[in-house]
Design brief:
This protein is of the alpha/beta class. It contains 13 helices and eight strands. Helix 8 links the parallel strand 7 and strand 8. 31% of the residues are buried.
Length: 314
Amino acid sequence: MFDAEKLWRDFPKTLPEFEEAFPDDDACREFLIRIRWGDRPRCGRCGEEQMWGLKNGLFECSRCGYQTSVTAGTPLHGTRKPLKLWFRAMWEMVARRNGISAKDLQRILGLGSYETAWVWMHKLRRCMIRADREPLDGKVDIDDGYVGGKSHRRGRGTDKAAVVVAAEHHGRIRMEHSPDLNGKCISSFAQRNLSTTTHVITDGFVIYGPGSLSPRTVEHQQQKALLRKGIDPMQRCHWPISLLKRWWIGTHHGAISNKHLQAYIDEHEFRYNRRMTHGPGRLVARLLQNLVSIPQLTMGQIVHGTPSLRFVQT
């Protein structure tokens, strides 16, 4: 009988273990079959479990004749590259504390073009956020920051991209690229990311009033007075914002457009929320777990789609 808990518990934790567990495409395909369907493949049309394996790697339904593959309907749909190469790309992307650029991924994996590496990374970033993830709860700090751009003006009012960040007192964060900093945007952010029972702590800025965060309890810190005493009341929010800026400049050299900024923030958030995880293999395991539940994502959707602002969807 299929034991999902044992499968993830025994997942490789180091690169040598990872390479030993997935030496070829057959091993990668078998693993994807197990995490997507459990004991055996199932027909995507009628749900039949009696499937015939074909020489080309597809499965054919014994009832309706429908053919499918283990990557069909996922971000890996229609890929012609070896699955082993995809697995290694996942490792390179999430196992490093500072991530990796598309150019470096192209060089390491020997991909034919920069565009291929760039699209691969965007597909994997899409797998880093679960739609059904639990909202933040308990005591949560909320603040904002700015990234990118060439403006020399600091603080609120700059033409740089605005980012809203919320940080639980026991660890998790949520970060989103915001089209503006006003009460409506903060209300939209809170609705997606904060439980209604959250106790929100802010720096007292007017946009974080009860009107935008209701029905949550709101507490305003006297930030200037605390800073004079050497205390940063919003440090839980300032840390991830600072690390985002450092990653932006150090790994990507500032070359991130506002259109795709949210996708990069999702990657940063994924890694930050798992900063205490023992063994980089566990991050790859989580990425694979999400991969088989995320719908197909094409290059056209990534390149020509609407800006990746979650606020657009509200």
